[in-house]
Amino acid sequence: MTYPEVIPISYEPDYHTDRIGRWRDGQFLGGVVPAFREGYSRTEDWLSHKRWYAVLHRFSPEGHYLDSRVECTGADDRHRESVDAADRRLDEWFTELPDLEFGDIAIRPFRLEFDGVVFGLILEDHEGEECAELYPNNLGFYAPWDGLYDT
Predict the structure, then answer these.
(1) Any residues with CB less than 8 A from the CB of 118 and at least 6 apart, and which?
(2) Contact predicate 22/101, CB 8 Å
(3) Residues 121, 110 contacting (CB under 8 angstroms)
(4) Phi, psi of 122 (to 5 degrees)
(5) pLDDT, tens only, 83-92
(6) N or C: which end of the chain has fewer CB within 10 A?
(7) Other residues' Cβ atoms within 10 Å of the Cβ of residue 51
(8) For residue 127, how far is the Cα from the chain centroid?
(9) Rounded distance, CA 116 to CA 93, Å?
């Protein structure tokens, strides 16, 4: 495989990658994301199974994974309340990152599980094409590895 050591991710204000950038000690990737727990099969009460998470991953200046903060703030059956709570939590976490500046990042693949959900930037093969998939966001990064993604 010919994956790059670090995967560039472009900052896009008001879109999927609008909460990424750098801080005094490295880089960060944050977001508010919905996800179903692994193994979930669609049921009539699916809204109560679709959970909302505030997520903040931190990386070294070279893109090595350091740690994550993840918090489930509710389910989609209370959509607005759950999303607003996740936004508030993420904003609180951002205040703890000195010299925070939004912008492009370049990070190495990583993976973690929280609350039965996979989070991370995971190297995969999609129909014969190398890809780095950001979970649970479902953003795919491909050659020419320019930071742009497919949804």
Answers:
(1) 38, 111, 112, 135, 136
(2) yes
(3) yes
(4) -115, 130
(5) 999 999 999 9
(6) N
(7) 22
(8) 23
(9) 22
Q: Mean pLDDT over all residues of the chain?
A: 95
Closest residue by Cα to residue 19 from 98, 102, 108, 92: 102
**Beta-bridge partner residues of 141:** 132
Sequential DSSP letters for 67-91: EEEEEEEEEGGGHHHHHHHHHHHHH
Query: In DSSP terms, which residues pair with 111 in a beta bridge?
Result: 120
How far is it between the farthest Cα atoms of the chain?
46
Distance CA 7, CA 25 (A): 19
Q: How far is CA 6 from the centre of its chain?
A: 16
The single-letter DSSP state of residue 43 is -
Distance of alpha carbon 88 from its chain centroid, rounded?
Answer: 17
The residues pairing with 120 across neighbouring beta strands, listed in sequence order, are 111, 135
CB of 97 within 8 A of CB of 28?
A: yes
Mean pLDDT of 50-54: 96
CB burial class (10 A; 0-12, 13-18, 19+) of residue 43?
Answer: exposed
DSSP 142: E
User: At 53, which amino acid appears?
Assistant: Y
